[in-house]
Amino acid sequence: xKDYRDIIIKPVISERSxxxxxxxxxxxxxxxxxxxxxxxxxxxxxxxVRVEKVRTxxxxxxxxxMGRFEGKKPDRKKAIVTLKSGDKIRIFEGM
Length: 95
Hints:
- InterPro entries: Nucleotide-bd_a/b_plait_sf (IPR012677), Ribosomal_uL23-like (IPR013025), Ribosomal_uL23/eL15/eS24_sf (IPR012678), Ribosomal_uL23_CS (IPR001014).
- This is Large ribosomal subunit protein uL23.
- The protein has 95 residues and is of the alpha+beta class.
- The protein has a single domain, classed as Alpha-Beta Plaits (2-Layer Sandwich), CATH 3.30.70.330.
- 23% of the residues lie in helices and 37% in strands.
- It contains 3 helices and 6 strands, in the order αβαβαββββ.
- It has helices at residues 4-7, 15-20, 36-47; strands at residues 8-11, 25-30, 51-59, 63-66, 69-72, 76-83.
- The protein has a 4-stranded antiparallel β-sheet with strand order 1-2-6-3. It has a two-stranded antiparallel ribbon with strand order 4-5.
- The longest helix has 12 residues, at 36-47.
């Protein structure tokens, strides 16, 4: 099993993810090979909160161009984590 800090890559800061904070839902970019139970235990161990539900989304990378060179952004996996009522993650407070 991987280290918990290798599973959670970074939080997602967007307008939609900020709207989900009112419903105790937090969005993270996670390792592409991580499953829901690994994500749940990683969030609980790192942030000391209780996780109620985890939803995952595989996001395909968009095609990009720089002049005549073509490429694409890398694929990634997002996880929307619902916490039990009363629990908060401090890195999202004040945004």
